[in-house]
């Protein structure tokens, strides 16, 4: 089978995908697009032709697929440009877009062109997430009653040297991952939510912490806290040992799912339950620990994209519609935080 000719547009968020493609015998990194010293350094490191204008790249290079890792507001024009030259496989970095309107236009454009659209919510390719999803679907937890989730990180000062990191808070950067995790793991959709956001840590123009209560159409509730300015190990990326550029602190959970038959902590992978014929706090609570692999989920997402291009898999792990559903929830969180009111969502 011939190597998949791939281009990566955007070498800030897209540098990881470019490096993974260059390191894989399955892909031929045909070209990259980006501007500035970082883009020049990544292109030189990988020996890939660099275009400052992604439109010129798309019109000049024959491709099997494209990774779009540009700023969110540029996703729609880049998708249209790729479709216009006949590209049929697109991996678009999360979130799918800045607005629901742009997201809908991206989805419709890909549908009309008969193109495969994969949204880069990479945790859907995490071994821990895949395990828990199957564990829940098998009925091991019984009926889900509630969920606790957190995304707690202390981002270094240098992180905020990038302009858009100062104008986009952890709700759109971090919480969007966790909202998508909950959609993926449970299959449930948020019906109602209330959010309280603060910027008391750095005093910036966007939030640096927020607490949210979700009510799901199927009945369960979820409490969620996110911050990018708090030391602590209770964020998935810190605890899961999957992202190698982060100084990990394994052994803690960022997500707890509570069911009528038992409870599960992730990513520590512990299941708590009572034995047959036993129930209640006077009985011994049993713990089962599961060991699963910890492959890099971003790398696994690119491999999944390759499977879609080669026809090995036919269904994207995160479709455009699923990416839009996640975006709608995060936009509702932002609306609730600003208005200090409960927001209702269409959970269909």
The tally of structural domains comes to: 2
Order of helices and strands: EHEHEHEHEHEHEHHEEEHEEEEHHE
Classify the oligomer: single chain
What is the CATH T-level topology of the largest domain? Answer: Dihydrodipicolinate Reductase, domain 2
Largest sheet: 9 strands, mixed
CATH class term of the largest domain = Alpha Beta
Distance between the termini: 41 Å
Task: Count the beta strands.
Answer: 15
- What portion of residues is helical? 25-40%
Rough outline: globular
Q: Which structural class best describes the helix and strand composition?
A: alpha/beta
Lateral arrangement of strands in the main beta sheet:
14-13-12-11-7-10-9-8-15
GO molecular function: nucleotide binding
Domain GFO/IDH/MocA-like oxidoreductase: 132-264
Organism: Enteroscipio rubneri
Protein name: Gfo/Idh/MocA family oxidoreductase
Description:
- One of its GO terms (molecular function) is nucleotide binding.
- This is Gfo/Idh/MocA family oxidoreductase.
- Residues 4-121 form the Gfo/Idh/MocA-like oxidoreductase N-terminal domain.
- It comes from Enteroscipio rubneri.
- There is one protein chain.
- The chain is α/β, with parallel strands linked by helices and 348 residues long.
- The chain is built from eleven helices and 15 strands.
- The protein has two domains: 4-120, NAD(P)-binding Rossmann-like Domain (Rossmann fold, 3-Layer(aba) Sandwich), CATH 3.40.50.720; 124-295 and 328-344, 2-Layer Sandwich (Dihydrodipicolinate Reductase, domain 2).
- The strands form two sheets. Strands 14-13-12-11-7-10-9-8-15 form a nine-stranded mixed beta sheet. The protein has a six-stranded parallel beta sheet with strand order 3-2-1-4-5-6, sandwiched between helices.
- α2 (36-46) links the parallel β2 (27-33) and β3 (50-51).
- It is globular and about 70 Å long.
- It starts with a strand and ends with a strand.
- 43% of the residues are buried.
- The model has no long low-confidence stretch (mean pLDDT 95).
